[in-house]
Amino acid sequence: MQISGAQILVQSLKAENVEYVFGYPGGAVLEIYDAIFQLHKFEHILTRHEQAAVHAADAYARASGKVGVALVTSGPGATNAITGIATAYTDSVPIVVISGQVASPAIGSDAFQEIDMIGISRPCVKHNFLVTEIEELAPTIKKAFQIAKTGRPGPVVVDVAKDVTQAHAKFSYPQEDIFIRSYQPVVNGHIGQIKKALQMLAAAKRPLLYFGGGVVLGNASQVLTEFVRTLGIPCTGTLMGLGAYPSRDRQFLGMLGMHGTYEANLAMQNADVVLAVGARFDDRVVSVPAKFAENPKKIIHIDIDPSSIAKRVKVDVPIVGDVGNVLTEMLGLWQKQELMFNPTSLDKWWKTIENWRSRDCLRLPETEHSELILPQYVVQKLAEITHYDAIVTSDVGQHQMFAAQYYPFERPRQWLNSGGLGTMGVGLPYAMGAYLAEPSKDVCCITGEGSIQMNIQELSTCYQYKLPIKIICLNNGYLGMVRQWQELYYSNRESETYFDSLPDFVKLAEAYGHVGMRIEKKSDVEGALREALAMKDRLVFMDFITDRKQNVYPMVGNGKGLSEMVLPPHMRESKADSDVNDVNDRDYDTRSVP
Amino acid sequence: MRHILSILMENKSGAMSRVVGLFSARDYNIDSLSVAPTEDPTLSRMTIVTRGDSSVIEQITKQLNKLIEVVKVVDLNESRYVERELMLVKVRAVGKDRDEILRLCDIYRGQVIDVSDKSYTIEVTGTSEKLDSFLENINNSLILETVRTGAAGIGRGERILRI
């Protein structure tokens, strides 16, 4: 029996066990929407903007570990999707975005709502396909899912010409993976390299494991945790890696990098052997490679993507492969060969680290008047009240860093944010995708008054599908992170970062059918959070009016090395300062600390 | 340093633009590029001449390998190779210049492949350097038009790039 291309598409998605498709209809995809209506093979979530559809699909993928799917129309639908695609690309999230294209005879004629989606998305996709023959449709969908989720995951765009959706053909979906001769990701690490890495590691006096988002994407959290515990070494994680190792565990030093902890950054700078696992030495982590290399260290780097290895820093032992496979192999050999560290050196290293840690660099400042709300305090309270178990999405800015620093994530896929591209406006659509993936969890979106307004129309989607998200808006009336940089690097010239006409978020939330709350006093924070979280079936928008002048610290400034951190003002020239320096200055690089 | 990269890729529409787009997106320069289908019509072979230190070339090679439609990449500079480029030069040829040009052609083992009362069209092949040298030695005011293919390279001896 012959069915239409649109029906083939819907059946193909069904065959991939797709639960949700996030999308927005339009001319070029009318046929597909009709097939969705008639066949009803999955739930379609109608967002209010294509960007949000792709972000929600991306969040669904991040939270569930499955492939997220978005469906958009040609032209403006496709271009609106680009920011979402680029966001998923930078963070290696497996999504398939299906875009409508004008009918094949019209392609290239500057037709109504025509854009070269293949060309426009090429730099920000793992791969893309244009389908102009109906016979190609089902195999292309199969390949798209295969490519999106294997190797280093990423977004795949399938641009489908409208006449293909209208044509008819017999449907059969490939059962097995399609062999693609030019795409054969390496998943097992080279055994020789693994042995070399273990020898190098065992000889270390100051070992450090540094993990990134690859551990989350590769579902390698469990073996990573076992590895770190068996070896007894300290570990630190990137923004994208948070949750891959339980954050409240003693062996975790906190996040490292531009806003990393004192102990994590100094450990990274002073380690003699660094084992990097699914992390890519991004500029927000090592800042300037030359300064990173000032303290010589051996680097072992495990990554599924060879191009991530030795891209920014020199690597001594590269291991290409799936992080879970490689760590399992390494852990097995470590135990079999009864390898161990020199106990005296490791002990000394831990003592040094504990000294750094005793500085307690995330301790909150005393505020001038007791009812001023510190944004960090709100995050701390949220963490306590949700028992460190909520799924937290964030937007981009100061609130994002406060969330990363003050919410101890205990498991992978609990923390969703745009780490690579830094896309403002992801928070709310991320919460939507995350809730649909994990409806039994509290889903909290930590955002700012700037970020939330970039996709605030999605409050409407949340109402339609009854998504009981908790929005925690840390409202300081400023584009906080930009203002922080203006303060530090542009002599306090607050160019266009001040909002003097913010909406009444309480009324706005109510206008969309939700509950709104404004919280202006510190003593009201806990009660408000408890009340909001108790409303299991309602979206609550909490507008916390916070201290306008808080900055994110520690901070590694522009062009500085990891040890040249700036600590918050209330920690400078304290007694603890001199204590720590007494112990460490002789042996270690602690140039920092104004 | 100048490197010649040889790339085997799927002979599909859009594959070449992925390669070229990768160079421009990452701010790598292409000195020359030549591409054509191979003996296997499903595969194209592309030769790219580029410049960079070893870490840049390593990154280019890795990024190229990451493209789904790229089957294999080699840096021919890693061992011995031969390279050739084809150039067609149309020159004004009147009076005593006609003989002079033919003598220069001889030295460079070029061939005149089209003639008119006032012009010769000359075909020269060789390394890019040799073609540059030919242009330097011909009277510049006589040159009407040049067209070059970009280098094509292949490993010496038994070294083969195929799937």
TrEMBL record, chain A:
Pfam families (alphabetical): TPP_enzyme_C, TPP_enzyme_M, TPP_enzyme_N
Species this chain originates from: Alysiella filiformis DSM 16848
TM ranges: none
Taxonomic placement: Bacteria, Pseudomonadati, Pseudomonadota, Betaproteobacteria, Neisseriales
Listed SUPFAM superfamilies: DHS-like NAD/FAD-binding domain, Thiamin diphosphate-binding fold (THDP-binding)
Entry superkingdom: Bacteria
Start and end residues of each stretch annotated as Disordered: 571-594
Catalytic activity: 2 pyruvate + H(+) = (2S)-2-acetolactate + CO2
This protein's UniProt keywords: Amino-acid biosynthesis, Branched-chain amino acid biosynthesis, FAD, Flavoprotein, Magnesium, Metal-binding, Thiamine pyrophosphate, Transferase
Annotated Thiamine pyrophosphate enzyme TPP-binding domain residues: 395-543
Enzyme class name: transferase
Domain Thiamine pyrophosphate enzyme central: 194-329
Biological pathway: Amino-acid biosynthesis; L-isoleucine biosynthesis; L-isoleucine from 2-oxobutanoate: step 1/4; Amino-acid biosynthesis; L-valine biosynthesis; L-valine from pyruvate: step 1/4
UniProt-recorded name of the protein: Acetolactate synthase
Molecular functions (GO terms): acetolactate synthase activity; flavin adenine dinucleotide binding; magnesium ion binding; thiamine pyrophosphate binding
EC nos: 2.2.1.6
UniProtKB/TrEMBL annotation, chain B:
Signal peptide region: none
The keyword Transferase appears for this protein: yes
Species assigned in the record: Alysiella filiformis DSM 16848
Residue intervals of the ACT domain: 4-78
Pathway: Amino-acid biosynthesis; L-isoleucine biosynthesis; L-isoleucine from 2-oxobutanoate: step 1/4; Amino-acid biosynthesis; L-valine biosynthesis; L-valine from pyruvate: step 1/4
Gene3D superfamilies linked to this entry: 3.30.70.260, ACT-like. Chain A, domain 2
Name of the protein described by the UniProt record: Acetolactate synthase small subunit
A Gene Ontology molecular function term of the record: acetolactate synthase activity
Subunit structure: Dimer of large and small chains.
InterPro entries in the cross-refs: Acetalactate_synth_ssu, Acetolactate_synth/TF_NikR_C, Acetolactate_synth_ssu_C, ACT-like_dom_sf, ACT_dom, AHAS_ACT, AHAS_small-like_ACT
